[in-house]
Design goal:
- InterPro entries: Bact_response_regulator, CheY-like_superfamily, Sig_transdc_resp-reg_receiver.
- One of its GO terms (biological process) is phosphorelay signal transduction system.
- It holds the Pfam family Response_reg.
- The protein has about 120 residues and is α/β, with parallel strands linked by helices.
- Helix content is about 50%, strand content about 25%.
- It contains five helices and five strands; from the N terminus they run βαβαβαβαβα.
- Strands 2-1-3-4-5 form a five-stranded parallel beta sheet, with helices on both faces.
- α1 links the parallel β1 and β2.
Length: about 120
């Protein structure tokens, strides 16, 4: 199982991700509410996987992704995006995102994608 950092400005999204991932045996090592805090937590915690919302205040997900990849080019980052943000998702994948999850959340999709990324990490 993986140590996971959740970066999302939505308390509801963080709670859904936490509950689903912990139920699968993953450990949520930290949470952040914006990209700036997320970068600091990433540097401190060095998670196996980071979930990163693409639209956030202070520092958006795409800019945060670039900083994470500069910090650790092998980082496993799963972007979280709302429907209709295809262009941003393509940019995120070009900048090193491993995978993406779409909102509204489908529990099976989250579990499948995180499990796949966790298996790649090992």
């Amino acid at each position: 199982m993986a140590n996971i950092l959740i970066i999302d400005d939505s308390k509801t999204s963080r709670k859904i991700l936490r509950n689903l991932l912990e139920a699968e045996g993953h450990v949520i090592v930290g949470e952040a509410v914006n990209g700036e805090d997320g970068i600091a937590k990433f540097k401190e915690l060095r998670p196996d996987i980071t979930t990163l919302d693409i639209t956030m205040p202070v520092l958006d997900g795409l800019e945060a992704l670039k900083l994470i990849m500069n910090e650790d080019e092998k980082a496993k980052v799963v972007m979280v995006t709302a429907a209709g943000q295809k262009n941003k998702m393509v940019d995120a994948l070009k900048h090193g995102a491993t995978e993406y999850i779409s909102k509204p959340f489908e529990p099976e999709q989250i579990i499948s994608i995180i499990s796949k990324v966790a298996d790649e990490k090992n």
